[in-house]
Write a structure and sequence with these properties.
Helix content is 76%, strand content 0%. It has helices spanning 3-30, 37-51, 58-79, 87-105. Helix 1 packs antiparallel against helix 2 (37-51), helix 1 packs across helix 3 and helix 3 (58-79) packs antiparallel against helix 4 (87-105). It is flat and about 55 Å long. It starts with a helix and ends in a 6-residue tail after the last helix.
């Protein structure tokens, strides 16, 4: 899978996970409707399915996905929660995305 496809799939996966967790947050912390748990469950099921679409070992996928999830969470913080991330937040995101790239596309030979 090339970089664009891998990153795009990770981005969709992150969105599904964040939405799946955000709806219960709205219900628990902001008194919104309990019915938000239904789309949350669907979103979390979608999240699990999307993670299974990568053609590499599950542990590698989960480790690399973490970097994209962090980036998506920072974007969510900025766009949805209306909190501006700091410069160090963005530096951290860049480090995580670099790590994701190394994990997914680095050499597969043992040292």
């Amino acid at each position: 899978m090339d970089f664009i496809k891998t990153f795009g799939l990770f981005a969709l996966t992150a969105l599904a996970e964040i939405v799946g967790c955000y709806f219960p947050y709205l219900w628990l912390k902001q008194g919104r409707s309990v019915w938000l748990l239904l789309p949350a469950a669907v979103s979390l099921a979608l999240f699990a399915w999307l993670l299974s679409l990568h053609p590499t070992a599950a542990g590698r996928v989960y480790a690399a996905y973490g970097g994209v999830y962090i980036a998506a969470a920072m974007l969510w913080l900025w766009l949805v929660d209306k909190v501006t991330p700091t410069t160090t937040d963005w530096v951290g995101v860049a480090v995580c995305l670099l790590g994701m790239t190394i994990i997914m596309f680095g050499s597969r030979t043992e040292l």
